[in-house]
Amino acid sequence: QMQLEVSGGGLVPVGGTMTLSCAASGYTTCGYDLSWYRQAPGETRYSVAGADSDGTMRVTDSVKGRFTLSQNSAKNTIYLQMNDLKPEDSAMYYCNVYWCPHIGSRYNRWGQGTQVNVSS
């Protein structure tokens, strides 16, 4: 079974820093494509940052210069370091994974959301 272990989240002051992590485990024929999404109340869930199984990393333009995505490939883990947090960053953050339990088949799963609240 594919499993996602998420850590981080909680309350943080404006301008503060918080790091989220997401670790994947389970059988795959193509590695893991891990990414972070976020969704604020009344808004659409959208991608914030991601790293595929080859280590290619990306962050969305709205958080460039403040958020940094890194990975530990040996542990199948991604880390999202969020700096200079703003109230607009308050959201439920979700880890997402694509994997291939069989060659030619690609599946997607959401991890448990973690709430990030930036106080104003």
H and E order? EEEEEEEEEEE
The secondary structure category is mainly beta
Task: Give the overall silhouette.
Answer: elongated
- Output the number of helix runs: 0
Entry keywords:
120 residues, 0% helix, elongated, mainly beta, single chain, 57% strand, 4-stranded antiparallel sheet, 7-stranded mixed sheet
Structural write-up:
There is one protein chain. The chain has about 120 residues and is mainly β. About 0% of the residues lie in helices and about 60% in strands. Strands 2, 4, 5, 6, 9, 10 and 11 form a 7-stranded mixed β-sheet that branches. A hairpin with a 6-residue loop joins strand 4 and strand 5. It is elongated. The chain starts with a strand and ends with a strand.
Structure, briefly:
This protein is an all-beta fold and 120 residues long. It contains no helices and 11 strands.
SSE layout and pairing:
Blueprint: E1 3-7, E2 10-13, E3 18-25, E4 33-39, E5 46-51, E6 57-59, E7 67-72, E8 77-82, E9 91-102, E10 105-110, E11 114-119
Parallel strand pairs: 2-11
Antiparallel strand pairs: 1-3, 3-8, 4-5, 4-9, 5-6, 7-8, 9-10, 9-11
